[in-house]
Design a protein that fits this description.
This protein is mainly beta. The protein contains 3 helices and 9 strands.
């Protein structure tokens, strides 16, 4: 069956605002996507860990960055930066933090991540 589902992140179905974090979630008929804006000084282990209750982020992320820079350090010690124009897959078991003085804006397309990230 042909069809198009669309929604604007400017009018999300859900809006979450943990410390230094803004997550806008749209539901496209059972598929969820999120726009995340992380402010300078944001770090997963400081801003999200208290609500996640895990030692490192256990979410599988698939997305793209449109602004800002993010540094990711996995539990195994591997590290990488993602920035504007980068598509990414970040496996569970990591900490991450915003680099520099610009907010990070990214779009998450793993429906499970969009549904659960930074939710209480």
């Amino acid at each position: 069956m042909a069809g198009v589902s669309k929604k604007s992140f400017e009018s999300p179905d859900e809006h979450r605002t943990p410390d230094k974090t803004s997550v806008d979630v749209v539901d496209l008929g059972g598929i969820k996507a999120a726009r995340m804006t992380l402010q300078p000084g944001w770090r997963w282990s400081e801003c999200i860990k208290p609500m996640a209750g895990t030692e490192s982020c256990q979410v599988h992320h698939v997305g793209t960055v449109t602004a800002g820079q993010l540094h990711v350090r996995h539990d195994d010690g591997s590290e990488s930066d993602v920035g504007p124009g980068d598509a990414y897959v970040i496996e569970p078991g990591h900490d991450a933090w915003v680099l520099g003085s610009d907010p990070l804006v990214c779009y998450e397309f793993d429906s499970k991540a969009a549904e659960t990230y930074a939710s209480t």
